[in-house]
Write a structure and sequence with these properties.
single chain; mainly alpha; about 300 residues; two-stranded antiparallel ribbon; MetI-like fold
């Protein structure tokens, strides 16, 4: 019998990892966003959660005992019975009505007006876009000075018998709400007109040839095709219940029933008792997240996805 000579199989060469220029470029481009996410979102949120289990003692935060693990949450729930917190919750809830049920419908109407290029649309572009360009602190300063007793609007207000400062007393919250509507319309108009500009011209020309009236075109064509943008703005409006704080801070300093959840968290974050704003913020997140996700799911079911 012939002997079969077994030859050793050739050894595979190990591939050495070489850093190429493409890999370096990808690493550099991903480093900042990943680091930003880990530090500014993950790190901040983890730290906020940990703060809810701490309490200040002699100016320093220390961990609560295990038997009092939810002490901060119990304190928060007890504070809901006070008139101050109830007023704050009501003042914050109003911004849902302002953003979603007032500002958004008005913005839709004027966006359609600008989109159709009706006479005067260029003038309205400047009027609506200006509040979105200027910093908020400048807008609130100009707004408060204009409606002051000696401001630009003083002669008109005096015709209606209004001579007092509108940012003091019961009228203060109305002025803050009015400012939020005026300033918020410009932001919504920018996004809505951008969404409408993506609609194919063939669709609009077909409506014109078929004799579709403007109101029917607005409700049957424009709104369904821009529904993703409308849904996004509606969700942003729901979030304004928790994140509106600069407007009342600049206009009224949170006085006269204008204190909001966001402003309360901002003011309390300046002290040593950081556990209080952290607990309130985490509680709001836990409550708002399922509501917003459910609302978004429901809004997406109203109109199907349209690709164009």
């Amino acid at each position: 019998m012939e002997k079969v000579i077994e030859s050793n199989p050739p050894k595979r060469k190990r591939r050495r990892f070489k850093i190429k220029g493409t890999s370096i470029f990808i690493f550099v481009m991903l480093f900042y966003p990943v680091a930003h996410f880990l530090l500014m979102w993950f790190g901040v949120n983890i730290n906020s959660i940990l703060l809810t289990f701490q309490t200040p003692v002699k100016g320093k935060l220390v961990w609560v005992e295990f038997k009092e693990l939810f002490y901060n949450y119990e304190t928060l729930f007890l504070s809901f019975k006070t008139s101050t917190v109830q007023s704050m919750l009501k003042a914050s809830g109003v911004y849902f009505i302002i953003s979603c049920l007032i500002t958004l419908p008005i913005s839709l109407f004027f966006s359609y007006f600008i989109f159709k290029k009706i006479v005067g649309n260029s003038f309205f572009k400047v009027i609506f876009f200006l509040p979105s360009i200027l910093p908020l602190i400048i807008l609130t300063l100009v707004f408060s000075l204009s409606f002051s007793p000696n401001g630009l609007m003083a002669p008109i207000l005096q015709l209606f018998g209004q001579k007092a400062d509108l940012f003091i007393g019961d009228s203060a919250k109305w002025m803050v709400w009015f400012f939020c509507i005026w300033a918020g319309i410009g932001y919504d108009v920018i996004l809505l007109t951008s969404g409408m500009s993506r609609i194919p011209r063939d669709v609009l020309e077909s409506c014109k040839m078929d004799g579709v009236p403007p109101m029917k075109e607005f409700f049957k064509i424009i709104i369904p095709l821009t529904w993703p943008t409308i849904t996004t703005l509606f969700i942003f409006g729901m979030m304004s219940v928790f994140n509106v704080y600069l407007q009342p801070m600049f206009l009224t300093s949170g006085m006269y029933d204008t204190m909001t959840i966001g402003l309360k968290i901002y003011q309390d974050s300046g002290g040593s008792a950081l556990n209080t704003p952290a607990t309130l913020g985490l509680f709001c997140s836990l409550v708002a997240t399922p509501i917003i996700l459910t609302t978004r799911w429901g809004l997406n079911k109203i109109y199907g996805d349209v690709n164009y």
